[in-house]
Every structure is written in structure tokens, then in C-alpha cells.
Amino acid sequence: MANKVAKPDLSFWQIWNLSFGFLGVQFGFALQNGNVSRILQALGADVHDLGYFWLAAPIAGIIIQPIIGGASDSTWTKLGRRVPFILGGAIAATLAMFLMPNSEFFVALMPPMLFGATMLLIMDASFNITFQPFRALVGDMVNDKQRDLGYSVQSFLINTGAVVGSALPFILTMIGVNNEPAEGQKVADSVVWSFYIGGATLMITVLWTVLRTKEYPPEEYAEYNNIDLEAQKAEKEQQAKDGGNAIANFIKTLISSPKVMFQLAAVQLCSWVAFYFMWVYSTPAIAQHIWHTAPGDVTSAAYNDAGNWVGLMFAMYSFAAAIFSVLMPSLIKATNRKTVYASALILGGLGLLSIGMIQDKYLLFVSMAGVGIAWAAILAMPFSILSENLPAEKMGIYMGIFNVTIAGPQIFAGLFGGTIASNFFDGNAVGLLTMAGVILIIGAFCVGIISDNKDKKLEQ
């Protein structure tokens, strides 16, 4: 077969359009991260059980992303290859966002906390349906020369959406929206309206990507990636003739995974355990540590003020991540990906470690700036490194399998976070944030085992 034809350079705005919908998806995801614990506690969940509710996201990811990845690899429609899944996930996520903060009004269907947990599961499943195709879409469309730029732009858009989503409850409170539940309500209007705005933003931005992105048709994609369509068709026909053993085919694909995928897994383990602890336990930790609330207090003005402040902290780390995303391509050119990746994780670990030592709520923004630098690297570096080592015809399914390295650590953290807090930190949630900082620094040292051959390619 002839050598593959190089993919054309895309304009900056074409690369921007590829990931613009991710801005809205992350807007919604940031609202979930900053407010779901707050909503569930208002509906009656105990702080030590919060981690179990949050398990919905990683479990949904492990099940859904490989399925969606494999399906999108072989899906070609008028809308494209990845775009149909992005659009479908966005519609479902928007509906869940509209319903979750109103869980108490569906008491005729099921208890409010159960309804809220169900909406969280649907929201998480829907976000996961959109995440994987967005990441694979960049890998599909950009050439090797623009790969770091493509994932850096995606990281910038993700974090820009997260800044607004995280800060929105605080912003609405500042303009007069009630930040305490009104009589007869469990969830504050500032949170309810934030979810409405977030859902609408999600749909608008995803529609922008859907309408502005034209994916390569099968023949052109095959030409760019040196894929033999006839051989691929014959392989599928043989699999169907052999009974289409999906499990055997999946195991075969898993065994043939590139070595770098397993090397990245060690770093991913540390990264996602650390961030899971931060997302789940920041609100009770900051409420207890800075506002000095009692452990069972989930409705007072102080607790809700702490919840808004955590939203601002999350906005700060997302803002820092957005800025660092712009700088990453230049830093990579000046050094290399592994140096930038490891340094970013160390700064994030130091940021989390410092939270337990700080009493001034404004100094927490300095801590979160370091966390944001780590987050930018986590969103871009693994996918940029991995996508260079994946066969183009299986980009989607391998990206889906790789999600196990994101979801698995979160499941571990969700199962054992509450136990760790009770047994090692006397129920003090800020102890888990300190532990998260140590874990993230360990992840920085694990970057050293990754085989990144990009520098060798550039030298040749």
C-alpha cells in the first residue's frame, strides 16, 4: 500500500471549532463538580457517603467510553464519525442538568436524594458519551505537527468553560439571586439557575461544533492514515463469520495496546485519585477549615458561603489552567513534554498540600493556581502523547479503553475516601486534600517512565 498522504494543516479557527463544544460540556461538568456534593447534602446525604454517589461518573466512564469509542470508529453518517455521539450526549446531559437541582419536586416518583442520584448518573453517563468523541475528533482531524496545538486549544476551551461554570453561583449571588434555600426548598436558587444556564450553554456550544466541523469522509480518512479499507472490510466480515465474539476481539485489542498506554496509566492513577478527592471533599473541607462549620451543618449561611467560595476556587484553578494551556506549546518546544508534564504535576501537588496550612480564604487562590497548572497538563499531555502512538482506525476504542486509567482511580478514591478520612484524619476532610497533594507529586515522578518518542522524530 502507498505511503499515507499527510493531513492538511488546519487553520486556528478550524482547530478551535473542533473543541468549542467541549467548552459547554466542561461548563456543565464544572457546575457538577462544584455543586453536586452541596445538592446531595441538602437532599440528605451524609458527608462520609458523598464519595459513593460520585462513583457514578467513573463507573459510567468505564462502561460507556470503550463502547462509544468502538462504535464511533465504525460510524460514518452525514453528520460525521464522532459528531453524532457528541450531539446525543449533549442533549441527554442538558436534560439532566435541568432536572437535578429540582429533585425535591419529583417526590411523587421517588425520594429526592434517589432522584438526584439518578440524575447524577444520567449526567455523568452523558458527559462520558461526549468526552471520548471530542478527544478522538482532535486526533482524527489534526496532523502530527499540529497535535500539541490541537490538544492545548482543547484544554484552553475546557478550562475557560470551567472558569465560568465554577464561578457562576457566586456571580448570581452577587447580582441578587438567593444563595440560601427559600422556605419549602432544599437547593438555593443560585445553584438552580446556574444549572439552567449551564445546560443551555452546553447545547449552544455543541451545536456550534456540530455545524462548523466537517469530518473527513471514509476514503479521505483512510488515505491520510494509510488504512486499507478492503482489508478492514474483510477483517470485519471474518469476525462476523466467526460469530462476532465481541469479548474476544476486545481482549485482543487490549493485549495489543501500545506500551505507552500502560506507562501513562501510572501517572493517571495518581492524577485522578488526587483530583477526585479535591472535587468531592473541597466543600466540606473548606467549610470546616475556613468557616469553622460543624460537620453536620449543610444548610447554614456559612456552609453555603463556603460552597460559593469553593466555586471561586475551582474557577481559579480553571483560569490558571486556561492560561497555562496557551503557554504549553511554547514550553514544550523549549524543553519537552515530559519535563512540562512532571513540573506541572509538582506545582499542583504543592498547591493541594498548602490548603491545610492556610487560614486566609484569599490565599487559597494561590494554591489553586498551582492546581490549575497541573490540571491543564492532565487534560492535554496524556492524550497528545497517546494519540501519536495509536492506529488511526482504532483511535476511538483505544481512547475509550484509556479512560479506564481515569475512571479506575476515581472508583478507588470513591470507595475508600470516606474510610480514609474517618480512620486517618478524624473525619477532617481537609486531610484528604493534603493526601491528594502528596499523591500528585508521586505522579510527577512516574512521568519519568513514559516513552515519548516525539523528540526523536523531530530530530530525524
Automatic annotation (TrEMBL):
SUPFAM superfamilies: MFS general substrate transporter
Keyword Ligase: no
PROSITE patterns, sorted: MFS (PS50850)
Gene3D superfamilies, sorted: MFS general substrate transporter like domains (1.20.1250.20)
Keywords associated with the record: Membrane, Transmembrane, Transmembrane helix, Transport
Subcellular location as annotated: Membrane
Domain Major facilitator superfamily (MFS) profile: 260-460
Transmembrane parts of this sequence: 12-31, 51-71, 83-100, 106-129, 149-171, 191-211, 260-281, 309-328, 340-358, 364-385, 397-417, 429-450
This protein's name: MFS transporter
